[in-house]
From TrEMBL:
<feature type="region of interest" description="Disordered">
    <location>
        <begin position="24"/>
        <end position="73"/>
    </location>
</feature>
<feature type="domain" description="DUF1541">
    <location>
        <begin position="148"/>
        <end position="199"/>
    </location>
</feature>
<dbReference type="Pfam" id="PF07563">
    <property type="entry name" value="DUF1541"/>
</dbReference>
<feature type="domain" description="DUF1541">
    <location>
        <begin position="84"/>
        <end position="135"/>
    </location>
</feature>
<dbReference type="InterPro" id="IPR011438">
    <property type="entry name" value="DUF1541"/>
</dbReference>
<keyword id="KW-0732">Signal</keyword>
<feature type="signal peptide">
    <location>
        <begin position="1"/>
        <end position="20"/>
    </location>
</feature>
<feature type="compositionally biased region" description="Basic and acidic residues">
    <location>
        <begin position="33"/>
        <end position="49"/>
    </location>
</feature>
<protein>
    <recommendedName>
        <fullName>DUF1541 domain-containing protein</fullName>
    </recommendedName>
</protein>
Length: 206
């Protein structure tokens, strides 16, 4: 009889230990699951924030100044193909919603126009083949135009981080350039005093 009671006692102890172990394992699994969910949520929030910052950065890079001021010494074109006040169609894609947009000429000037590559002074990725910067928007610009490959310092403020940035001339040509107002084909407000588009990038509005 004593042996039977001892056996029952030992069995009870073993059962209690097994149940306690299972309970601990369940708690650990629940904690691990909770930690995993918290980690996934935090990573999701971080990815969302990074994507938002990247999109804002891209969008900010396209925010052109709407100032109608022009550089000192820039000469108005005597016989531009598109006179001031003329309605035109824009055939360039410098900005989203620009190609195919209807615009109005607000200024026409004869100068040397450049495509340039530069790293913004505000940081960020290099801007390649930016169109356009004119001769009068280069620091200490002389009478002679620059050539592709020349290094210059920009004084233009078309975009954030452009002024005082060091740039490389990609292309250079003598041309009439235009400042225009236009309504983006993608919707939104009228873009005022966009600088610059060339004669080849405009056509008569239908």
């Amino acid at each position: 009889m004593k042996t039977k009671k001892l056996a029952l006692f030992v069995l009870s102890v073993i059962t209690a230990l097994v149940l306690a172990a299972c309970s601990d394992t369940g708690s650990e699994n629940e904690n691990e699951s909770a930690d995993h969910e918290n980690s996934s949520h935090e990573n999701s929030q971080k990815d969302s924030q990074e994507n938002t910052e990247n999109n804002e950065g891209d969008h900010g890079g396209m925010n052109h100044s709407d100032s109608g001021e022009v550089p000192e010494g820039l000469k108005e074109a005597e016989n531009p193909a598109f006179e001031v006040g003329r309605e035109v169609m824009v055939n360039s894609d410098h900005m989203q919603g620009m190609n195919g947009a209807i615009g109005t000429v607000v200024g026409a000037y004869d100068t040397t126009v450049y495509a340039v590559s530069y790293t913004p002074t505000t940081g960020g990725e290099k801007v390649s083949n930016h169109k356009w910067v004119i001769h009068e928007e280069l620091e200490n610009a002389g009478d002679q135009p620059y050539k592709p490959g020349d290094e210059v310092v920009l004084t233009a403020e078309h975009m954030e981080g452009m002024n005082e940035a060091t740039a490389t001339i990609d292309t250079a040509e003598r041309s009439t350039v235009y400042m225009i107002d236009f309504t983006p084909t993608s919707g939104g407000e009228v873009v005022k005093n966009h600088k610059w588009v060339t004669e080849e990038e405009l056509s008569a509005a239908e």
